[in-house]
């Protein structure tokens, strides 16, 4: 069975195609992404109207490229991100998916973007056992309990203020590293000393029973440090600040993820979302999982950031699980919570 996934929740127009084999594994047939990131760079963040227009221009050519890459004329099922995300951006992908599903007469599945970030790992590492998932992206930071991709996902905790990816972007901006800042900060941190500056680790105390996160204090601490350098008339040691900030984020995320594994008695940790492309989050997660006897599953960096393949991968599981298609009348849901993989009414 061949499933096409369409993603347009933010600034990436993604179309992915996967084939699900009888044994439950999936093969990637196409992964096409058109990004409007360059158009947002001069504003220092995603401009929703600009993103919507870019999706409108890119959606049909991107679908055509994906079909050509996969060597097919149409998939057996079509899956699309229905939320969460930017309202206007979501509308473009959903309208295209509905139109093509109707024209091709193939079933249509309205799916959760966040479920896609978790499900994409199954492409590389096969069916997912009960897991704790650490989802870290530009708009979200969640710890999740995933019993199976067909069951509702249980949220164990989330950020009470900034998302971790957002903190990366804001700190990068503060350091003059441009936009999007996450990858640039990751690169420059390689030349820095992660223990140079002791930045705070929010909500890591023994009393924080829920698995929540806070990154705004850390972001403020970096801002104060930069101000202090200016007052003292000395240059900001950018690599050291980047490395120390990144270490604080990676420390908190991986520590709390492993604490959740321990509390739930779960021995698999899955990473997902754009910020888990970060090299230090990946290496520290690997170190700590190894020490704790927890199996770590991490998609390759390209599949961590937004793409259509993740929606195709989730779609393949939803279809194989016997779910009924979503009606073509289903509406986009910019604030869709993480719990529902598929929206069916
Ligand atoms: P959401 O999934 O919450 O809707 P999103 O769709 O905007 O968010 P993703 O593509 O999942 O975004 O993630 C983008 C985020 O990932 C940005 O904040 C970006 O800075 C961050 N990011 C990407 N690569 C890295 C990296 N190597 N290090 C740190 N952060 C990174
Ligand atoms: Mg993006
Ligand atoms: Fe995302």
Automatic annotation (TrEMBL):
Recorded name of the encoding gene: tsaD
Reaction(s) the record says it catalyses: L-threonylcarbamoyladenylate + adenosine(37) in tRNA = N(6)-L-threonylcarbamoyladenosine(37) in tRNA + AMP + H(+)
Instruction: Name where it mostly resides.
Output: cytoplasm
Protein localization: Cytoplasm
The biological processes this protein is annotated with in GO are: tRNA threonylcarbamoyladenosine modification
How the cofactor is bound: the record states: Binds 1 Fe(2+) ion per subunit.
Residue ranges the record marks as coiled coil: none
Q: GO MF annotations for this entry? A: DNA binding; iron ion binding; tRNA N(6)-L-threonylcarbamoyladenine synthase activity
Its GO CC terms?
Answer: cytoplasm
Sorted keywords for this record are: Acyltransferase, Cytoplasm, DNA-binding, Iron, Metal-binding, Transferase, tRNA processing
UniProt binding sites for substrate: 135-139, 169, 182, 186, 278
Q: Which family does it belong to?
A: Belongs to the KAE1 / TsaD family.
Q: Which HAMAP family match?
A: TsaD
Name what cofactor the protein needs. Answer: Fe(2+)
* Chain positions recorded as Fe cation binding sites: 113, 117, 306
Which residues are the signal sequence here?
A: none
Broadest EC class assigned to this enzyme: transferase
Q: What InterPro entries would the database entry show?
A: ATPase_NBD (IPR043129), Gcp-like_dom (IPR000905), KAE1/TsaD (IPR017861), Peptidase_M22_CS (IPR017860), TsaD (IPR022450)
Domain Gcp-like, first and last residues per copy: 27-312
Entry function = Required for the formation of a threonylcarbamoyl group on adenosine at position 37 (t(6)A37) in tRNAs that read codons beginning with adenine. Is involved in the transfer of the threonylcarbamoyl moiety of threonylcarbamoyl-AMP (TC-AMP) to the N6 group of A37, together with TsaE and TsaB. TsaD likely plays a direct catalytic role in this reaction.
- PROSITE patterns, per the entry: GLYCOPROTEASE (PS01016)
**E.C. number, please?**
2.3.1.234
Q: Which domain of life is it from?
A: Bacteria
Q: What is this protein called?
A: tRNA N6-adenosine threonylcarbamoyltransferase
């Amino acid at each position: 069975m061949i499933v096409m996934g369409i993603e347009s929740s933010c600034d990436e127009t993604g179309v992915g195609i996967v084939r699900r084999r009888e044994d439950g594994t999936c093969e990637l047939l196409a992964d096409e992404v058109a990004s409007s990131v360059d158009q947002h760079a001069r504003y220092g963040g995603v401009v929703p109207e600009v993103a919507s227009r870019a999706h409108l221009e890119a959606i049909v050519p991107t679908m055509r490229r994906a079909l050509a890459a996969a060597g097919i004329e149409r998939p057996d099922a079509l899956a699309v991100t229905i939320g969460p995300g930017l309202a206007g951006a979501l509308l473009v992908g959903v309208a295209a998916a509905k139109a093509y599903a109707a024209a091709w007469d193939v079933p249509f599945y309205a799916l959760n973007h966040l479920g896609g970030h978790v499900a994409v790992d199954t492409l590389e590492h096969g069916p997912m056992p009960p897991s704790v998932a650490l989802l870290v992206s530009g708009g979200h930071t969640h710890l999740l309990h995933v019993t199976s991709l067909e069951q509702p996902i249980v949220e164990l905790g989330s950020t009470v203020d900034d998302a971790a990816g957002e903190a990366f972007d804001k700190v990068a901006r503060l350091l003059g590293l441009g936009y999007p800042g996450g990858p640039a900060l990751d690169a420059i941190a390689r030349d820095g000393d992660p223990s140079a500056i002791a930045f705070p680790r929010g909500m890591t105390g023994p009393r924080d029973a829920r698995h929540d996160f806070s990154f705004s204090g850390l972001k403020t601490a970096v801002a104060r440090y930069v101000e202090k350098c200016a007052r003292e008339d000395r240059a900001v040691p950018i690599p050291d600040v980047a490395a120390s900030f990144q270490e604080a984020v990676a420390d908190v995320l991986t520590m709390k993820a492993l604490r959740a594994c321990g509390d739930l008695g779960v021995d698999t940790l899955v990473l997902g979302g754009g910020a888990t492309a970060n090299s230090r989050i990946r290496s520290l997660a690997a170190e700590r999982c190894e020490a704790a006897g927890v199996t770590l599953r991490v998609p390759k960096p390209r599949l961590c950031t937004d793409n259509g393949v993740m929606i195709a991968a989730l779609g393949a599981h939803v279809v194989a699980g016997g779910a009924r298609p979503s009606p073509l009348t289903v509406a986009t849901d910019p604030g869709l919570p993480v719990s529902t993989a598929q929206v069916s009414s």
